[in-house]
Amino acid sequence: MNRAEALALVEPHLTEHRYIHTIGVADTALKLAENTDVDKNRLELAAIFHDYAKFRDKQEMRGIIMNEKLDPDFLLYGDELLHAPAGSFLVEKEIGIEDEEILSAITWHTTGRQDMTMMDKILFLADYIEPNRSFPGVEEVRELSASSLDEAIIKALANTIEFLMKKKQPVYPGTLATYNQLVFNIR
Ligand code: DGI
Ligand code: FE
Ligand code: FE
Ligand code: FE
Predict the structure, then answer these.
(1) C-alpha distances in Å from residue 53, one per residue of 48, 89, 95
(2) DSSP 3-state assignment of 72?
(3) CB of 164 closer than 6 angstroms to any ligand 1 atom
(4) Residue 73 C-alpha to ligand 1 middle, in angstroms?
(5) Tens digit of pLDDT for each residue in 103-157?
(6) How far is the CA of 33 from the centre of ligand 1 (A)?
(7) Which residue among 113, 133, 147, 166 has its CA within the 20 to 30 Å range from the CA of 123?
(8) For the chain, which residues make up each domain, given as ranges?
(9) Residue 179: what pLDDT?
(10) Pocket residue to mutate for ligand 1, from 21, 80, 123, 132, most atoms within 8 A of Cβ
(11) How far, in Å, from the CA of 153 to the mean position of ligand 4?
């Protein structure tokens, strides 16, 4: 599947705003992948489909997470988490992508996970820093991403954890575990 075919398949599932974000994520991911051995076509597909389920019915997504025995914590820490694991399942079922690396990157693009692959890391960061994003702290993460993906992800996770705590929202335990692992590894 090439870029144009993938974009045509995802577009009907997204708003215009989310479609523009998706193109930004794909372009940013390809830039971050320069000088890495990550497969560019597969990375691009992961990026194009990463928010495939963003507008799906929440009960449908909860049903998928339960039926497929995905991490039950995805059900407990905020509805924003549902679209990543449910999207991975739906991209496999409806689009026919069976590549485990692509499906992993989609599953973990919101929270990160321990032992992230290079593709997981690049998609996570591209989602955070793509050019249409403009929240506080994004510029610092963009700058860090030029020198260290891990340092950039640590900062992005710290920003997200702070943002959730300021609003007294729960933090998905896997997000904290990802943050801790990267901080330990970087010392
Ligand atoms: O789907 P996008 O908007 O492109 O970006 P995303 O998939 O990274 O989702 C961002 C949302 O997810 C934002 O509202 C914060 C929320 N989020 C990210 N990490 C966590 C989280 N929510 C909870 N409860 N816990 C987390 O660890
Ligand atoms: Fe997302
Ligand atoms: Fe994100
Ligand atoms: Fe996104």
Answers:
(1) 12, 9, 12
(2) helix
(3) yes
(4) 14
(5) 999 999 999 999 999 999 999 999 999 999 999 999 999 999 999 999 999 999 9
(6) 23
(7) 166
(8) 3-135
(9) 98
(10) 80
(11) 15
Amino acid identity at 110: T
Which spans in the chain are helix H?
Answer: 3-10, 16-32, 40-48, 58-67, 83-90, 100-107, 118-129, 138-147, 149-166, 173-186
Q: Closest Cα partner for 179 from 114, 110, 85?
A: 114
Question: Quick one: average pLDDT of 38-62?
Answer: 98
Q: Cβ(137) to ligand 1 under 6 A?
A: no
- CA separation for the pair 7, 89 (Å, rounded): 18
Q: What is the average pLDDT across 80-88?
A: 98
Assess contact for 103 and 84: CB atoms under 8 A.
no
How much is the average pLDDT of 72-97? Answer: 98
Q: What fold is seen in the domain 3-135?
A: Hypothetical protein af1432 (1.10.3210)
Q: Of 106, 118, 116, which is closest to residue 52 (Cα–Cα)?
A: 106
In angstroms, the CA 113 to CA 179 distance is 9
pLDDT computed for residue 40 by the predictor: 98
Place of tokens 């904290």: 176
